[in-house]
Write a structure and sequence with these properties.
This protein is α+β, with helices and mostly antiparallel strands. Helix content is 38%, strand content 31%. The chain has one domain: 3-Layer(aba) Sandwich (Aminopeptidase). It contains 5 helices and 7 strands. Strand 2 and strand 3 form a beta hairpin. Helix 1 packs across helix 2 and helix 1 crosses helix 3.
Length: 168
Amino acid sequence: MTVSLRDAREHEQDCAWIESVYRDYLDDLRARRTGLFPVLGAVGLAESRLVQGWLADRDATLLTILHHGRRAGFALLVAQHGRHGIDYRLTEFFVARPLRRRGLGREAARLIFDRFAGRWEVVQDAGSPSAIAFWRNVLAAYTGGDYRERTGHGEVRQYFSSAKRTKG
């Protein structure tokens, strides 16, 4: 499987594509009626303003997930600079619906964690059993089960350290 990542800041067409699929991402989250997402939909926050905010944030990295060179999803990670013992927080992660359940998300996550070695926090809404199961499976495979999990305030959070791993 050919999965790769690239910095969306360097590709204007990637940013436009992310804006175009962000509504699908919100629809997935809104289906669970959780947190801030129903409010965003009701208010009609323009996707372009949201994506532009990500691009303006010096601590944020917006990545395009590619499958065989074609856009397949996106991920947003935010550098935490060691606050609360965390280097990176994965705040958004999306794979387009037609491409799900093919291993793209798992491979993209591995590439992200390898590229940005450090102490990670990954957060899911406690009302999303599919997201929780996905991240538990991904992190168990990636870390060999060496991650911590906390549940509270309607969220499930996993903590682990990543380092570039060599295939042997």
